[in-house]
Write a structure and sequence with these properties.
28% of the residues lie in helices and 21% in strands. The chain has 500 residues and is an alpha+beta fold.
């Protein structure tokens, strides 16, 4: 990557094969930039990443060295973050008079409905159509929680797209009718070449009195990012922008200085040692889901329930922790895993246990000049795990209560218990009283019943529009029994398979 250029006046993005320039303020999102180019297929529906009407494809690096067409919400992504990148909109899927296979199937099967959300569905379907791992699976579920069609199409790839006409059946039919990309498909062939590298960017716009126009920077290294933070601690740090983008759209948040860190190589990747598995803080949830492939079972249970595929394609594991939200889905699971955070600054690194990281509502021990650079999960992993998310919708929703379990049982005795809770206090927290009560006790229904009331008293639940305090308490009270029943079911299933 080239060094940052001072006072850069514009960034360049390849959109549907054409290079386009952007020189607007840092808060401008990719959706507004694309629509200003006359590409009006992507639309704003919710402005917070829940409806998918704004979906676009971005060429992202694949772990094999090629490119992966990745669907993201353009309403959340800063336009400047696309500098040097390659983007496809619904208008760019087909060439000339030809119709793309995804567009064809949606049209002939009545999947377009009113058409407002159709371009977004088309983009998400195209991302799944070109997913390298997609293979025919005979109509059987390929893994827990998957809704896989006979052509290998995973319907969860559409979980972030909402049809306002409730026309989901013809959309599903169109998805399951898709074959494999043709040998001469240029978008399929594009996957073999490397994706554009992140470009070091310094888009500097004159500040105004109210700070609505400022500076956007994508540093070329972690050292450069930490230097900027040490000199300008008020800088807004952005990774996937799934949180900051909502603040910009719905709360009119503006920043004089924005620092984009999502592609810093030092913050990415998965590193393994005999003592721990270290997750790069800027690795997206989709990348972790794909590359871990169930290696950490508790995270494997978390990922499918975390928002939608469109959000997971952008959201980072470090960002979900850094916001300090009490209803983030990752903290309860990582608390149960005894995770430790690596915090870095120009002063060096320090390790902080996740259970000590949160100090108040959206407050943490992270200093203004520090970045979360990695999350360390100690080994060995607990054999009995579960992630329970209670929400109004099964997918693409914010949790009312989230609970992570990691339990080790030896010779019928609970040797170690770790329980992470979200949505029941001003911060995510460990259920320490329940853990203490469980450890050393028999792994039995009596033990679970005795501990259930203690778990119900953990935290300080409150009433809000998602759930009442009474409901949250009730969910905690029954949670242990649900966990115990899940483990009995898993044991029985494993025994049945052995008998076969």
């Amino acid at each position: 990557m080239s060094p940052v250029t001072s006072n850069q006046t514009a960034v360049e993005v390849t959109v549907n094969g054409t290079v386009c320039a952007f020189d607007g303020p840092p808060h401008t999102n990719a959706l507004d930039f694309l629509r200003a180019q006359g590409l009006t297929g992507a639309k704003e529906g919710c402005a917070e990443g829940e409806c998918g009407a704004c979906a676009i494809l971005v060429a992202r690096p694949d772990e094999g060295g090629g490119a992966r067409w990745t669907a993201v919400n353009s309403c959340l992504l800063p336009a400047a973050a696309l500098d040097g990148g390659e983007v496809l909109t619904a208008e760019g899927l087909s060439e000339g008079e030809s119709v793309h296979p995804v567009q064809h199937e949606l049209a002939v099967r009545g999947g377009s409905q009113c058409g407002y959300c159709t371009p977004g569905f088309t983009i998400s379907m195209a991302a799944e159509y070109y997913r390298p791992e997609r293979r025919p699976c005979g109509g059987q579920d390929v893994d827990e929680g998957s809704q896989c069609g006979p052509n290998g199409f995973d319907l969860h790839s559409l979980s972030g797209n909402l049809c306002r006409c409730t026309g989901y059946r013809p959309i599903r039919d169109a998805a399951f009718a898709l074959g494999q990309p043709a040998d001469n498909d240029p978008l399929a062939a594009r996957r073999s070449d490397s994706a554009p590298s992140a470009v070091a960017t310094d888009l500097h716009r004159p500040d105004t009195a109210d700070g609505k126009i400022g500076r956007y920077r994508r540093p070329s290294s972690l050292a450069e990012a930490l230097t900027i933070l040490s000199e300008e601690p008020a800088t807004s740090v952005v990774a996937g922008s799934t949180d900051w983008g909502v603040e910009v759209n719905l709360k009119r948040a503006r920043a004089r200085s924005v620092l984009q860190i999502d592609r810093l190589p030092e913050l990415r990747g998965i590193r393994r040692t005999p003592e721990c598995i270290e997750l790069g803080a800027a690795h997206t949830l989709s990348e972790l889901e794909r590359e871990l492939a169930g290696e950490i079972p508790l995270l494997g249970k978390l990922f499918p329930q975390f928002a939608s595929r469109l959000i997971r394609n952008a959201a980072t594991i470090g960002g979900n922790l850094g916001t300090g939200s009490p209803i983030g889905d990752a903290p309860p699971a990582l608390l149960a895993l005894d995770a430790t955070l690596v915090l870095s600054s120009v002063r060096g690194q320090r390790l902080v246990e996740l259970s000590s990281f949160f100090t108040g509502y959206r407050e943490t021990v992270r200093e203004a000049d520090e970045l979360i650079t990695a999350i360390r999960i100690p080994l060995p992993l607990a054999p009995l795990t579960s992630f329970q998310k209670i929400s109004k919708r099964r997918f693409d929703d914010i949790s009312s209560v989230a609970i992570g379990y990691a339990v080790d049982v030896a010779d019928g005795i609970i040797a170690k218990a770790r329980i992470g809770l979200g949505g029941v206090a001003a911060t995510p927290l460990r259920a320490r009283s329940t853990e203490t009560l469980l450890e050393g006790m028999p792994w039995s229904l009596d033990t679970i019943h005795n501990a259930a009331e203690t778990l119900a008293g953990e935290g300080t639940p409150m009433d809000d529009h998602r759930a009442s305090a009474q409901y949250r308490t009730a969910m905690l009270r029954t949670s242990l029994e649900r966990f115990y029943a899940e483990q009995l079911h898993c044991t029985a299933s494993a025994t049945s398979k052995e008998d076969l």
